[in-house]
Structures are given as structure tokens and as C-alpha cells.
Amino acid sequence: MTEVPAVDPGQFAEMVRNASDADLEAGLRANHELILGQVFERMPEFFEPSRAGDVEAVSEWRIDIPGADEPERWQVAIAGGGAQVTRGGDQQPTVVYALGGLDFLKLITGAVEGPQLFITGKLRIEGDLMLAARMPSMFRFAGG
Q1: Exposure string (b/e) for 21-37, b if CB count within 10 Å is 16 or more?
Q2: pTM here?
């Protein structure tokens, strides 16, 4: 099996910002495992331990993919100055983020802000809301 090379985060952000919603949704339908896999598997590279302090938490992302029966679930565990990502995962989440795939892509690339998605009901948050608000500052923005 040929390994797919990682896409530069800045180039990925630009592609998302320049694509139509219809194109992004079509891309997610066809390649959501690859796209989400690349995004989440690279998250630990962008984690900033100095910004997390002594936080120990598990964030769970539930991402609705067009045409899928169940949302994609990914857990990001923060502990001991590091971040570990697990597809699915069985840890008890401290905070849960639930949103559509299109909004997820826009959020992680900086095309839209989390509070905007939350206020409009496109991002649902369960659990520790203070941690949910702080979590993005623990990661370097890779979107350029």
C-alpha cells in the first residue's frame, strides 16, 4: 500500500478557503477517512505544551460526514505535556465538540471561528465549556 504524503497545512487551508461548499462536501464524501486522518494524526505536531500548563483532558470530536450513518469520532488526549490522538477512542471525554464535516474543515483552517459556529448552532459543545473555550489556544494554528 502506498503511503499518501502529508499536505502542507498552509496549502490545505488555502484549498479549503478557495473551494466551494459543494466541492468540500463532495471531497469529504469521497475521502473523509484520508482527510480526517491527516488532520487528526498531525495534531500532536501543533500542540503547545507551554500553553496547556498542567491540563489533563480528553476532547472528543464528532464529525458528521455527508452520506454517513454515524459521525466520525476522534479523541485528543492531553496529558503530561503531550497530545495523543485516537480514532474512535474509549476514554471518558472532558469536552465533546459535534459539528458537520464542512464546518470542521472551515474551523480548523481558520475560514470560520468557533464562537461563530457555536452561536449559530453549527457547533455543539458538551462538557467543560471553559476548557472548550481554552482548547484552541493549546495548538499552534497551522492554517497559514
Answers
A1: eeebbebbeeebeebbb
A2: 0.87
